[in-house]
């Protein structure tokens, strides 16, 4: 019964990776490896006084359970000490105070006989297993019980009662010390005495003994779930960790979309996959975002740092960006410079999501004096990125403060230095052949908080634009690493005030990530930064957020209206300018070749990539549809310069256009033709727009013509459904024809937002509605929904009505505000009802 009967007689090296510093017992998770066989250290002689001193450290919790971790129970002990701890742990539930338990253990007569003459009855052990307190026993209890039970009896008890900590004890304190003969005997005993169905409900032994055929049959039946409770996730992972190869483990974890949740599971994952699947560890740590999970994330990170290889550096850099333990990750990178530099340098010459972040980190290390170490790790293939990491020869520092800068510095208030900014690490701002000093940089940081508009205007006028962009981006990266408390929206706004077009593209990616992570305050600041820059690149990014709206809590369309008003342009003219700028900057080669399918360079500076071209065409399709609804017109010059562009023209050829009372289409040769295919001449002063079917003569003729030419429009124009006021609604101001239809609550706001509706709450949420404005017709459509779901997951659309466009949205519309349905523009009425009918019909189909 004593462990000597099944301990290994010598130490055998296990099959382990030399660059992963896991404990020998951790490699037992991978049952397909050669098992470690360790020699247990000799037990120390039992001294009652020492054991009592350790016992006094136990803690009694408010839940009436005992916390044994502080007792420092040894993993190797004599029979007398084993009996002492057995008596303390199994009898603790009889006492309310630690001193009473200590007194009991002092008076117990301890076993001094040989192990085979055990003083413990099997029935007594069985009774203890049935107690709730056994769930809180320390892991060493498994080893203690091995003095009084055979290994087979012990496994039967463990699987019968399923105390997790005791399984941990079996893996840590017994399994690594088993000799091969006893290990195989245990597996033979299980196969002979257990049925597979019984084994399936004892998940923890599956990861320890590796009965592979039983495990594969069980895992193959599992299907992926949207989310997992912690117990269910742990159950599945620990069964999967017992499979017979690393490939099977990776396959099923990915198939079931499982994430690691504890440090032990990270150890098991590394024991199986070694260095080949570290991304799952990074994803799992980054997913632990709540305050309660930070300590767990830190423990998992500590296991990840047991890898002594450069391959772990990119994963830790990702945690710097995405996790709540970014400070610990940044500290590891700085303390392990050789590994960090060797691991991050390859990212700088690859198309990798962390490329820019790796370059920025290496540049920061170079400025801190580690340039020689970086050069040692570089070879010939890194020549192209050397200029990105290493600063140009240091310019002479500007001595006196320039007159153009002194005036605003003197007027600015004196602010406390920011504790999260290391000013010496910020790139120097270049002025002519000189550079500003650190003192000047600190003054600029103060001005960006106190007088940002004046400061940014003067800096743009007198300093080098590239150095200014590098300065402000490095400032943002320092802020993103530290995430200081308090509002720091001025940092995001500075990206728009001082950044160039490359910074704007990075900012747009950040806004998408912030919206996805529900960081709407940062996303709103990002939209404001794009508005401040107001270049064509900024406008184009705002358009991508507005068609369709990226979030209901940010307003990119308002930013576009604000820029258009400042430039004295219409919204359509402003957007056309931005789209034309994109075409002129990126699509020169495509325009000359006449085919967007020919091979294009991958760099976005010279040409649109395949993804960017698809985004451009999708955006323009949405714009054309909105122009039809809102009657946005082109002049002849604008029509010929924009619509006839080789990228836009194929889409425009499938649409019907109208000038004055004449409808026409764009033929394949670039000429204009009517419904009879006769040439059309445009009057020089004509306004050209996309007609709605309500305004289109010969609608059936045009539909037949497009079908004959096999032209497929990007949206429904000729065949667009038309809705009109019914006979029952002639004298009404409210549309109630959809009152008997329900809409999925989850999809309602998101679907309406994509169609251009905005959510409105009035009177602290007592009235909820949605509004869509038609400025060309001076009308706003209001949609009112029920306050409570009509049935589970559904809401009812109570009514639809129309008000004048000057309704401010701050009060509930009254009967006086409503416009009679017969006086509403037929186009507006048709479009509103078309959208609601499509929305409710789709929900009805899903429900069915």
Q: Can you give the helix content as a percent range?
A: 40-55%
- The overall average pLDDT, rounded, is 81
Unreliable stretches, pLDDT < 50, 5 or more residues? 1-6, 8-12, 112-118, 588-606
Q: Oligomeric form of this entry?
A: single chain
Total count of strands = 15
What is the rounded distance between the termini? 64 Å
Label the overall shape. globular
What does this structure look like?
The two termini are 64 Å apart. Strand 13 and strand 14 (779-785) form a beta hairpin. The radius of gyration is 36 Å and the shape is globular. The strands form four sheets. Strands 10, 11, 12, 13, 14 and 15 form a six-stranded antiparallel beta sheet that branches. Strands 8-7-6-9 form a four-stranded antiparallel beta sheet, with no helix packed on it. It is built from 38 helices and 15 strands. The chain is an alpha+beta fold.
What features would you highlight for this structure?
alpha+beta, 15 strands, 848 residues, disordered N terminus, 7% strand, single chain, six-stranded antiparallel beta sheet, four-stranded antiparallel beta sheet
SSE arrangement:
Elements: H1 48-55, E1 59-60, E2 66-67, H2 79-91, H3 98-107, H4 122-129, H5 141-145, H6 151-161, H7 164-174, H8 180-193, H9 196-200, H10 203-209, H11 212-219, H12 230-240, H13 246-255, H14 263-273, H15 279-286, H16 294-304, H17 313-322, H18 326-335, H19 337-344, H20 355-377, H21 386-389, E3 396-397, H22 403-411, E4 430-431, E5 434-435, H23 438-450, H24 452-462, H25 465-482, H26 489-498, H27 501-516, H28 520-533, H29 536-546, H30 556-566, H31 571-586, H32 588-593, H33 610-630, H34 636-643, H35 649-652, E6 657-659, E7 662-666, E8 672-673, E9 688-689, H36 699-708, E10 734-735, E11 742-744, H37 745-754, E12 758-762, E13 767-774, E14 779-785, E15 794-804, H38 826-847
Parallel strand pairs: 3-5
Antiparallel strand pairs: 1-2, 4-5, 6-7, 6-9, 7-8, 10-15, 11-15, 12-13, 13-14, 14-15
Helix pairs in contact: 2-3, 10-12, 14-16, 15-16, 15-17, 17-18, 19-20, 23-24, 24-26, 25-26, 26-28, 27-28, 28-29, 29-30, 29-31, 30-31
């Amino acid at each position: 019964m004593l462990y000597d009967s099944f301990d290994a007689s010598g130490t055998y090296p296990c099959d382990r990776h030399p660059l992963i510093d896991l404990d020998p017992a951790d490699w037992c998770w991978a049952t397909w490896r050669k098992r470690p066989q360790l020699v247990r250290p000799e037990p120390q002689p039992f001294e009652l006084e020492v054991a009592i001193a350790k016992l006094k450290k136990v803690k009694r919790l408010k839940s009436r359970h005992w916390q044994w971790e502080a007792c420092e129970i040894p993993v190797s002990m004599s029979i007398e000490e084993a009996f002492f701890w057995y008596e303390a742990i199994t009898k603790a539930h009889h006492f309310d105070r630690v001193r009473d338990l200590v007194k009991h253990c002092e008076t117990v007569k301890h076993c001094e006989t040989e192990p085979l003459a055990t003083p413990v009855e099997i029935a007594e052990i069985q009774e203890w297993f049935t107690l709730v307190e056994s769930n809180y026993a320390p892991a060493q209890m498994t080893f203690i019980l091995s003095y009084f039970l055979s290994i087979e009896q012990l496994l039967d008890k463990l699987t019968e009662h399923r105390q997790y900590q005791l399984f941990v004890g079996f893996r840590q304190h017994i399994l690594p010390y088993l000799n091969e003969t006893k290990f195989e005997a245990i597996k033979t005993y299980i196969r002979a005495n257990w049925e597979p169905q019984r084994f399936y409900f004892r998940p923890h032994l599956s990861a320890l003994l590796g009965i592979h055929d039983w495990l594969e049959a069980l895992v193959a039946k599992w299907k992926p779930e949207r989310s997992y409770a912690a117990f269910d996730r742990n159950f599945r992972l620990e069964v999967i960790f017992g499979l017979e190869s690393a490939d099977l483990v990776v396959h099923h974890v990915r198939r079931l979309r499982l994430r690691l949740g504890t440090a032990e599971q990270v150890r098991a994952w590394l024991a199986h996959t070694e260095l080949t699947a570290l991304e799952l560890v990074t994803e799992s740590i980054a997913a632990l975002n709540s305050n309660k999970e930070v300590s767990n994330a830190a423990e998992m990170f500590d296991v990840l740092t047991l890898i002594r290889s450069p391959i772990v550096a990119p994963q830790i850099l990702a945690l710097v960006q995405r996790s709540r333990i970014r400070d610990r990750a940044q500290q590891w990178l700085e303390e392990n410079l050789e590994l960090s530099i060797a691991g991050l340098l390859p990212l700088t010459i690859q198309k990798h999501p962390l490329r820019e972040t790796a370059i920025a980190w290496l540049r920061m290390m170079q400025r801190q004096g580690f340039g020689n170490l970086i050069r040692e790790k570089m070879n010939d293939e890194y020549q192209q990125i050397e200029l990105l990491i290493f600063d140009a020869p240091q310019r002479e520092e500007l001595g006196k403060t320039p007159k153009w800068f002194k005036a605003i510095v003197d007027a600015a208030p004196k602010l406390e230095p920011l504790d999260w900014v290391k000013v010496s690490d910020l790139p120097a701002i270049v002025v002519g052949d000189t550079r500003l000093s650190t003192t000047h940089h600190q003054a600029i940081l103060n001005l960006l908080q106190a007088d940002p508009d004046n400061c940014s205007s003067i800096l743009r006028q007198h300093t080098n634009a590239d150095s200014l962009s590098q300065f402000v981006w490095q400032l943002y990266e320092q802020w993103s690493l530290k995430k200081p408390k308090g509002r720091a929206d001025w940092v995001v706004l500075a990206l728009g005030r001082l950044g160039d077009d490359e910074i704007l593209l990075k900012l747009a990616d950040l806004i998408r990530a912030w919206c996805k992570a529900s960081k709407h305050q940062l996303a709103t600041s990002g939209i404001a930064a794009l508005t401040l820059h107001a270049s064509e690149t900024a406008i184009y990014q705002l358009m991508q957020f507005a068609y369709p709206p990226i979030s209901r809590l940010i307003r990119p369309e308002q930013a576009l209206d604000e820029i258009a008003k400042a430039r004295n342009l219409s919204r359509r003219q402003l957007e056309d300018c931005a789209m034309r700028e994109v075409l002129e900057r990126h699509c020169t080669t495509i325009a000359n070749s006449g085919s967007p399918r020919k091979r294009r360079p991958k760099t976005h500076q010279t040409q649109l990539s395949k993804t960017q071209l698809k985004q451009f065409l999708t955006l323009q399709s949405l714009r054309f549809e909105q122009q039809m609804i809102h009657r946005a017109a082109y002049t002849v010059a604008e029509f010929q310069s924009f619509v006839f562009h080789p990228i836009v023209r194929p889409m425009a050829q499938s649409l019907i256009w109208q000038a004055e009372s004449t409808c026409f289409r764009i033929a394949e040769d670039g000429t204009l033709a009517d419904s009879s295919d006769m040439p059309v001449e445009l009057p020089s002063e004509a306004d050209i727009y996309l007609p709605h079917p309500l305004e289109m003569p010969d609608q059936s003729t045009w539909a037949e013509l497009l079908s004959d030419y096999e032209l497929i429009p990007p949206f429904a124009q000729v065949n667009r459904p038309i809705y009109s006021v019914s006979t029952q609604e002639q004298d009404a101001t409210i549309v109630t024809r959809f009152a008997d239809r329900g809409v999925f609550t989850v999809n309602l706001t998101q679907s309406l937002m994509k169609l251009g509706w905005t959510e409105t709450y009035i009177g602290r949420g007592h009235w909820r509605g949605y509004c869509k404005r038609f400025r060309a017709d001076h009308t706003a459509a209001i949609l009112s929904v029920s306050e409570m779901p009509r049935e589970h997951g559904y809401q009812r659309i109570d009514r639809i009505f129309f008000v004048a466009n000057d309704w401010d949205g701050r009060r509930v519309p009254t009967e006086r505000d409503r416009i009679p349905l017969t006086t509403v523009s037929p186009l507006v009425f048709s479009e509103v009802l078309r959208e609601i009918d499509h929305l409710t019909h789709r929900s009805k189909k899903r429900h069915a």
